[in-house]
What does this fold into?
Amino acid sequence: MKAVFVTEFGGVEKLRHEEIPAPEPKANEARVQVHACGVNFIDIYFRTGLYPAEPPVILGMEGAGVVESVGADVTTVKPGDRVAWAMARGSYADMQCVPAQMLVKVPESLDLDLAAASMLQGMTAHYLTHSTYPLRTGEAALVHAAAGGAGQWIVASAKLQGARVIGVVSTPAKADIARGVGCDEVLLASDDIAAEVKRLTEGRGVDVVYDSVGKATWDASLNSLKPRGMMVTFGNASGPVDPIAPLLLSQKGSIFLTRPTLAHYTAKREELEWRASDVFNWLRDGVLKVQIHEVYALGEAARAHSDLEGRRTTGKLLLRP
Ligand code: NDP
It folds into this structure.
């Protein structure tokens, strides 16, 4: 089968698209013919080595496809089932062996491309707005990269919770997209974010910041929070945040800080099923009309990564094996 992997960490030139032996499912795994895999920023972190893994590393943490065979202990899915997954690495490939407990069945009415496009970012928005900081009606949230893949989902799910959403994006064209998915106000990354947030909230600050940009937005995010607000730093698009002294949290208003990852919010089977079924229902009900930026051929993974890193995309990037 063909797969995209790295044997050395680095830039997009390290991505190899080559023939490798198809994996054999372990007793608890299902082998899935991948119909589409999602491109996520986490794939860039594994490519560059920011997130450690033992090479060779087949990239990709998300996909949808059809079960082709199952290991001896698997009873929850069978060959022919349409399934989707997130946070199981190795999706940039014709076939992937995925632990059966990480697979969810895709409703008949849902297109496999849409399922592949929604699992990781949709469930991320779900846990951020429902579990990490469960937003309540009338609360205010600041969402960075609001026109991006995860960002669009976070805006939509925060609005569903009744929150006021202030988005941040880098260009006027992205601002239009952010408004289109529900942002009440949109700031440009070049603005004085904290000052604008304070102005928009009559000096109060927001209840929560969902910050996926990391290093570049850290200070502005902390300065945008109300006293005892929640800082959710969940990504490193501009680089990882530097170490901090806990005293800083006191100085910024006794604020709370968390650095969550989807894996810990879907580790229990019932949590995975709750989040995935809500995301599928949101798709059915049109809570977010998922914008597919482009479906790239698997062999074009390097171009997809360049586009994502270069801030040239909005919405979701998919690869087609
Ligand atoms: P996006 O589609 O959001 O793309 C990244 C966006 O980040 C860009 O479009 C850009 O938007 C913004 N950005 C700001 N600064 C930079 C920079 N220096 N370089 C590149 N992009 C920058 O990607 P994803 O939806 O895949 O991921 C978004 C973030 O969410 C990532 O940091 C990812 O790691 C994180 N994430 C974390 C999860 C978790 O559980 N912890 C799960 C899922 C995603 P603009 O041009 O508008 O500034």
